[in-house]
Design brief:
The chain is an alpha/beta fold and 349 residues long. It has 14 helices and 10 strands. The chain has 2 domains: 238 residues, Aspartate Aminotransferase, domain 2; 95 residues, Aspartate Aminotransferase, domain 1.
Length: 349
């Protein structure tokens, strides 16, 4: 199949293993509201993956996962530090502010779409001025919106600082699997052992029909999360349908196998462009995203060729062509894309 769609890993078809599991489980009678056996099994799988007791909650969208997780850990009168390019700041229509009922995001700069302690210190503000919000949480994206990732040491530095200030640490892990695959790091080291309080772990971009899971590493902090899901309209009766997808996603390491392939396809595109043209990705290709700064009319010519991709008009970096690979991307897809980009770039130089 000649695939020219590189807009997002969201547009790829569901993974057969996940689709089969969801259809099979759909024939059974199940307890409602996540009291089913499959959800319990997912929690057990996650406890094994992260080597600790966890409280896990299947949820349909990453936006709901992030917003409700932050509403849980950020308290009242809070400001949440995040990178200016983060999904919660740029692409979630104020969901965090809505569900936290008055808390505010404070977007910060950071190289490679990452925060560090020094940046957070500058953005922290004061906690004893009643005229101002106090910093109650920090949110980081893993992988970032530019396809880069935080190494264990970088997460640990932020985790140590947030703990010293009594601030919660949230991880938007919509592409967490890609980071595990790319870095070779232990999931526990990337999260709770480095100070992360709650992880929103994505499966949709890894081949699920639509399923995310909010993972708390301290059950006490999750005590009211299910009530929050209910109040916000996210406690679906058939949550087992999401759990079924997650169960298949984490079974037999499908989640990391799919991510390894997606990452490899992005690296293949990176290497082909470097070998056959003067194009160098704008950010290091660490996961499954490739960003290019093209000259002149190359963006329009590439779109006219039939290739589907997004142009990210970043306020600092300017317009960038973003190409995202997935578990379903084939090597031939990548090779044809590289050839098309190279030809158009040469003609537009």
């Amino acid at each position: 199949m000649n695939n020219k769609d590189f807009r997002s890993d969201n547009v790829s078809p569901p993974a057969p293993e996940i689709l089969d599991a969801a259809l099979r489980d759909s024939r059974a009678w199940m307890d409602a509201y996540s009291d089913d056996q499959i959800t319990g099994r997912v929690e057990e799988r996650l406890a094994a993956i992260f080597e600790c007791d966890v409280a896990a909650f299947p949820i349909l969208t990453g936006t709901a996962a992030n917003a409700l997780a932050l509403a849980t850990i950020s308290g009242r009168f809070g400001q949440i530090l995040c990178h200016r390019s983060s999904h919660i700041n740029m692409d979630e229509c104020g969901a965090v502010e809505f569900y936290t009922q008055g808390n505010r995001l404070k977007p910060l700069e950071g190289e490679g779409a990452k925060l560090d302690v020094a940046t957070c210190v500058r953005g922290f503000g004061t906690s004893d001025d009643i005229h101002q919000l106090r910093t109650t949480a920090v949110s980081i994206s893993q992988a970032t919106e530019f396809g880069t990732y935080y190494a264990v040491e970088q997460v640990a530095q932020l985790g140590s600082w947030t703990k010293s200030r009594g601030v919660g640490l949230h991880m938007d892990g919509t592409r967490f699997a890609n980071v595990v695959a790319a870095s070779g790091s232990d999931p526990a080291e990337l999260t709770w052992r480095s100070g992360v309080d709650v992880l929103c772990l994505g499966a949709t971009k890894g081949g699920a029909i639509g399923a995310e899971v909010v993972v708390f590493f301290d059950r006490e902090k999750a005590r009211d999360f299910k009530r929050l899901m209910k109040r916000s309209g996210h406690l679906a009766s058939r949550l087992w349908f999401l759990a079924s997808q997650l169960d298949a996603y984490f079974r037999d390491d499908l989640w990391t196998t799919a991510a390894h392939h997606a990452n490899a396809m992005a690296k293949r595109l990176d290497e082909a462009l470097r070998q056959n043209s003067s194009l160098t990705p704008h950010f290091p290709v660490q996961t499954n995203m490739v960003f290019l700064k093209l000259a002149g009319s190359a963006y329009e010519k590439l779109q006219a060729s039939g290739v589907k991709f997004y142009v990210i008009d970043d306020e600092k970096e300017g317009p960038l062509a973003r190409f995202v690979t997935s578990y379903a991307t084939e090597p031939d897809d990548v090779d044809r894309l590289a050839e098309t980009i190279t030809g158009i770039a040469r003609g537009s130089a």
